[in-house]
Amino acid sequence: MTGTGTPRIDLGAGIEGIGFWANGLPDWPAARAFARGDAQPGDAPARPSPQLLAPNERRRAPDTVAIALEAALAACTAAGRDPATLPSVFASTHGDLGITDYMCATLASDPRAISPTRFHNSVHNAAAGYWTIGAGCHAPSTAISSFDASFAQGLLEALAQLAAGAEAVLLSAYDGHAAGPLAAVSPSQGLLAGALVLARTPRPGTPRLRATLVDAVAPPARGRLPQRLHGNAMAPMLPLFQALACGEDLVFLHAGPGRVLRVEIADA
Predict the structure, then answer these.
(1) At residue 98, what are phi and psi to the nearest 5 degrees?
(2) Domain boundaries, the chain
(3) Bridge-partner residues for 142, per DSSP?
(4) Where is this region: Disordered (predicted)?
């Protein structure tokens, strides 16, 4: 129990694979090198082209889906796990605000002009749906939104699934660029996604983490990744990725009003 009487939640896992995508940092090796002080690549693409999807689905997928799937597949590849076998958790603060802005504007001006494809992509579990189609995955998939605590709550969900018996779980967290009037109340800049394959039994030579939910306020994020990508709504995940890149052993993730996910990191 914490000092205020809140039940203590303490969960652990091994990290088998890491994926990452951001504007200018198109994979985890580039992001890790940047976090350690290197320059960012000079020829990074404007958006990924997720090879998991068939060409027609790749064209239909919005940017948020593309980055979520790119990071997720990279994490699975790094872990040596078949994407078709993994239960997954997809966490996003806003889903796709660009599509939400389009839907609102079109419904207000010309409702009959709504694009079926954009309507299809407007749901919060769009990335999870594309993932299960592209990977041919029949394992359970969860879509989570918890405003600025979305990453921490997604991580808790993945860890809880491991504690409940899953061998390994994929977590993919992402957000895109806000557009229109929504940008004034739900600001978000650029594209950002991070993914982890978490396992109940850590492999030798891979990091392991232990997460404890406590009553506290998360300190300001530090490091090159949070400094560069702070404008994206999924920036609350960056302290963990900064720590993984630089070999740090403790981070605090915002988990809701007055709540923090305390994450200890160690070598397995």
Answers:
(1) -60, -45
(2) 13-205
(3) 89
(4) 36-57
**Are the C-beta atoms of 21 and 193 separated by less than 8 Å?**
yes
CB burial readout 13-47, b (16+ within 10 A) else e: bbbbbbbbbbbbbbbbebbbebbeeeebeeeeeeb
Q: Which helix (H) or strand (E) holds 253?
A: strand 250-256
Q: pTM (2 decimals)?
A: 0.93
Give the residue carrying structure tokens 């891979």.
206
Task: Return the structure tokens found at 109.
Answer: 């001006």
Give the length of the chain.
268
User: Quick check: 24 and 41 in contact, CB under 8 A?
Assistant: yes
Structure confidence by residue, pLDDT tens digits, 67-116: 999 999 999 999 999 999 999 999 999 999 999 999 999 999 999 999 98
Closest CA to 254 of 175, 173, 153, 179: 153
| DSSP state at residue 236 | G
- If one counts every other C-beta atom within 10 angstroms of the C-beta of residue 64, the result is 26
Higher pLDDT, 42 or 103: 103
pLDDT the model gives residue 58 = 86
CATH value of 13-205 in 3.10.180.10, 1.10.260.40, 3.40.47.10, 3.40.50.740: 3.40.47.10
